[in-house]
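Running low. Invent one:
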Amino acid sequence: MMMFIALQEHPSLQEINHIFLIPGHTFMPEVDGKHAVIEKYKKRLEKINVPDEWYTAVEQAGRTDPKNFPDGKFKVTHVTSFYDVASLSKEELIRRHKCTDKEPFSYLDTHWWKYCKNNMGMVQVKSSFCEDAEFRSLSFLRRGVRGDRLKQLLPCLQTLPASQPISVEKKKDLISLLCYLNEEFHPFYQNLPVSSTVHELHPQSPPLQLEEDDDDPTE
């Protein structure tokens, strides 16, 4: 959804190509070099007490390597809100495992996704890095929903604050660990918002199953 939102909000963008690199077989100097600097600087730190200290650490890491950070710093953007796209998944969008040609589609084996402004809700995909290889069409629109409908809804999306409540159980666990932190950091954890409707998932729990539909939306 973020790609469709970007296409909608930026007049100069007509197409976005999202290419998934192969782990262990690709190298991006401008990105990997910066990550290495941050990892190296992180080893100097004794511990991180609150999330804001991560921002400070990343910014300071940029001052240690003028080659990877010519301007002497790493700019950290603080996100204060994000779009609530959950409502779209209930009425307009759905996940599919078949392309419009009715052939099976594998998310894990796909390396190239292309999003076009004139085809909202439809993604061009292929499992090859070759530019000459043909794309296949994968629709995330529910049956009867058109791309124009998505264009109308995106500007109306509500935003949610970046700070979301955590579960009661998680806050209890965090509070129990305050004895390992200096008292100056206690208020951050004590003031974390909680909600009885939020439930934590164990890391080894099976992934949530999204609603799926293998039917061809063009029928």
In short: Helices lie at 2-9, 29-42, 52-61, 86-91, 147-153, 168-176, 186-190.
